[in-house]
Amino acid sequence: MIGDPLFWAAAVPAVLLAGVGKASGNGLGMVAVPLMALAMSPAAAAAVMLPILVAMDLIGLWAWRGRADGAVLRTVLPGAMLGIAIGALAFLALDVRWVKAILGAESVAFALHRIFARHAIAAAPARPPSRWLGGWWGAVSGFTSTLAHAGSPPLMQYLLPLKLDKERLVPPTVIFFTAVNLAQVPPYSALGLLDAGGLGASLALAPFVPIGYWAGMRLVKWLPEPVFYRVLVGSLLLIGIKLLADAFVG
Fold first, then answer.
1. What is the pLDDT of residues 100-154, one digit of tens each?
2. What is the model's pLDDT at position 250?
3. What is the b/e burial string over 177-194, where b = at least 16 CB atoms within 10 angstroms of the residue's CB?
């Protein structure tokens, strides 16, 4: 695998993009698995990316330490664990294209609403954390993350209406996906996806992990807050379109 030039051509940009997306909370890293899948099967790409995502999560825990909103996390993490369990059971039986189609359509609709109703949304008060909404979107995020590493769009649909400032929005995503990705390791192992070849490829790509994450941290600090939120909504729209394309074209 690592002796193939196509592997490096696809995998290095994938890891860098994943790092930027992880550090900035914009979901850009969701393109990592499809990009890496240009050089291997989608299941192998997901397996190679999982240890890399865990490594990025550990960097994020240190970089954003002490800044996470515990009230937000308590609403989403229990549902996420349930979603992971359901996703693991459905991994071999469910056609992922249907999951991508539903998630993509819903993400596009949400993003377009945020764009065209932005003035009304800006004038509306922030929504407080909700155990029920957080549980629902946490479960959806855990489910789609297990099947396709596509957990960011559902989580953003819960977090954006809370109107957290950017320094408070990113840390909960870091802790959330650290827990989600670590919880995925046992089911991935049980399904035989974490083999020696994949783990060797993950290790070979490890030097690129901090580079991508550092670039994402710089992006968060450099962008003004209104622009940062526009980037999040725009990313959600593009990710939704990408999911729809994967479902109906790929």
1. 788 788 888 888 988 888 887 788 888 999 999 999 999 999 998 887 777 888 9
2. 60
3. bbbbbebbeebbeeeebb
46-72 per-position pLDDT tens digit: 889 889 989 998 998 898 888 777 889
> What length is written for the chain?
250
- Contact status, residue 83 vs residue 91, Cβ threshold 8 Å: no
Q: H-helix or E-strand containing 83?
A: helix 70-90
Amino acid at 34: P
Determine the distance from the C-alpha atom of residue 226 to the mean position of all C-alpha atoms in its chain, rounded to a whole number: 22
| Residue entry with tokens 């592997």 | 7
The encoded tokens of residue 43 equal: 């299941």
> Residue 238, by phi and psi: left (phi above 0), alpha (psi -120 to 50) or beta?
alpha
Q: How far apart are CA 69 and CA 85, in angstroms?
A: 25
